[in-house]
C-alpha cells in the first residue's frame, strides 16, 4: 500500500495600521490566513525591519517576521497544519496618520493686515503635534481673523503646512484648527510737526 503524506499549508499575513514613523509591525495589526477561511491571531510587538519602509504603502510585502508569533484560531484552525510565519505573499498597508494642526497662541503689533509670520518656536509647536520624532512642520500659514488690535481674544487659524517626513508630507492627513487667545497689540503713534 502507498503512503499518503499531507504537507503543511502556508499562511498568508495581512494587516494594516496608521503611520507612526516605525518599521515595526505589531502582531495585533496582523491576521494570519490559512485554507478554507481559517484565520489566526498574531502576537508580539514585531521588530524594526518588519516593514521595508516606514512610509505609507499599500499591500506591500513584509520585510521580516521578527518579533512575531502565530497565535490562536477562533474558527477551527490548527497551527499544526501550517508552516511557520513567512513574508511570502504577505500584504501590509500603512495609511496616513490623521493629525489636527492647531495654530499656536501668537502675538504681533498691529500692522493693518491679518498676516502673521511663524517663528521657529511656532513651527516647533506645530511639529510637536505630529507626534512622530524627527518629522517636522517646516512652514505654515498663520492668519488672524481680522486686522484689529485686541488682547488675548484674537482668533488665529493655521493652513498650508509643509511637513518634512521624508515622504513629501504624504505620511499625514492634515486638518487645521484655530486658537482664540492670541493678541494684536496697538501700534504706538509718533506725532510729528508740532512745535512749541
Write the layout of secondary structure elements.
Layout: E1 12-18, E2 30-33, E3 39-43, E4 57-60, E5 69-70, E6 91-95, E7 97-102, E8 107-109, E9 115-116, H1 120-128, E10 136-144, E11 150-164, E12 172-185
Parallel strand pairs: 1-6, 7-12, 8-12
Antiparallel strand pairs: 1-2, 2-3, 3-5, 4-6, 9-10, 10-11, 11-12
Question: In brief, what are we looking at here?
Answer:
Strand 2 (30-33) and strand 3 (39-43) form a beta hairpin. The protein is mainly β and 196 residues long. It has 1 helix and 12 strands, in the order βββββββββαβββ.
Key attributes of the depicted protein:
39% strand, 196 residues, six-stranded mixed sheet, 1 helix, single chain, mainly beta
What does this structure look like?
This protein is mostly beta strands and 196 residues long. 5% of the residues lie in helices and 39% in strands. The chain has one helix at 120-128, and strands spanning 12-18, 30-33, 39-43, 57-60, 69-70, 91-95, 97-102, 107-109, 115-116, 136-144, 150-164, 172-185. The chain has a six-stranded mixed beta sheet, with no helix packed on it. Strands 7, 8, 9, 10, 11 and 12 form a six-stranded mixed beta sheet that branches. The longest helix is centred in the middle third of the chain and has 9 residues, at 120-128. The radius of gyration is 27 Å and the shape is rod-shaped. The chain starts with 11 loop residues before the first strand and ends in an 11-residue tail after the last strand.
Amino acid at each position: 500500500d502507498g503512503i499518503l503524506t499531507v504537507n503543511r499549508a502556508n499562511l498568508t499575513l495581512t494587516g494594516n495600521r496608521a503611520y507612526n514613523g516605525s518599521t515595526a509591525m505589531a502582531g495585533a495589526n496582523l491576521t494570519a490566513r490559512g485554507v478554507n477561511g481559517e484565520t489566526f491571531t498574531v502576537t508580539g510587538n514585531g521588530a524594526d525591519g518588519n516593514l521595508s519602509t516606514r512610509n505609507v504603502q499599500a499591500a506591500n510585502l513584509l520585510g521580516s517576521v521578527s518579533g512575531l508569533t502565530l497565535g490562536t484560531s477562533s474558527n477551527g484552525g490548527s497551527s499544526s497544519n501550517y508552516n511557520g510565519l513567512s513574508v511570502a505573499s504577505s500584504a501590509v498597508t500603512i495609511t496616513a496618520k490623521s493629525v489636527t494642526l492647531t495654530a499656536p497662541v501668537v502675538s504681533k503689533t498691529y500692522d493693518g493686515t491679518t498676516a502673521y509670520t511663524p517663528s521657529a518656536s511656532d513651527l516647533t509647536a506645530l511639529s510637536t503635534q505630529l507626534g512622530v520624532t524627527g518629522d517636522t512642520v517646516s512652514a505654515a500659514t498663520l492668519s488672524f481673523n481680522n486686522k484689529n488690535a485686541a488682547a488675548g481674544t484674537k482668533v488665529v487659524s493655521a493652513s498650508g503646512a509643509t511637513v518634512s517626513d521624508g515622504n513629501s508630507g504624504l505620511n499625514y492627513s492634515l486638518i487645521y484648527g484655530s486658537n482664540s487667545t492670541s493678541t494684536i497689540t496697538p501700534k504706538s503713534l509718533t506725532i510729528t510737526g508740532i512745535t512749541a
